[in-house]
Amino acid sequence: MGLPAALRSRLRPSSEKSAVSSSSSPSSVTKEDHSPSSPHDTTTTTEVNNNDHDLNTAAIKRATRMRKGFALSASFAYMVSWVLLLLVLVGNTSNRAVLKSIYFFRLDLADIIPTSVPNASLINSIAQSIGLHDFYQVGLWNFCEGYQNV
Fold first, then answer.
1. Cα separations in angstroms, 13 against 7, 10, 17, 49
2. What is the largest CA-CA distance in the chain?
3. Quick one: which of 140, 138, 147, 142 has its CA closest to 109?
4. What is d(CA 79, CA 73) in angstroms, rounded to the nearest whole number?
5. pLDDT, tens digit, for every residue of 42-72?
6. Which residues, other chains included, contact 106 with Cβ-Cβ below 8 Å and sequence gap of 6+?
């Protein structure tokens, strides 16, 4: 199921363990008594070493603690991703300060010609007159274009 293979064999009850692997582990001893009175009578005696039991319990607790940590961190990341997804869906949908500042891409072309070039303001005004906007802002549902001076 969810446990490593090394822990699955240790979690079986002692009767299943002796039936599956007849005396393969040093912690269990199986005795079979075939007397004439009861030919199918099987007696199982299990000796459990406390150190082995403590090792199993410690390994199980460690594996459970690690899995719990991963599950909690994955749940936290999932919730954060939902919050960010809602921000992306709502962003750039309205003319409010917070909502219009959330976008995927913004291209700022306000000063496409550097001011060090002679007649830069004239060239920028010509670019505006032929239809080039100062900025383009792309969101999930729409886009926005405009001028910064207006």
1. 13, 8, 6, 15
2. 117
3. 147
4. 10
5. 444 444 455 556 668 888 888 899 899 999 9
6. 135, 136, 137, 138
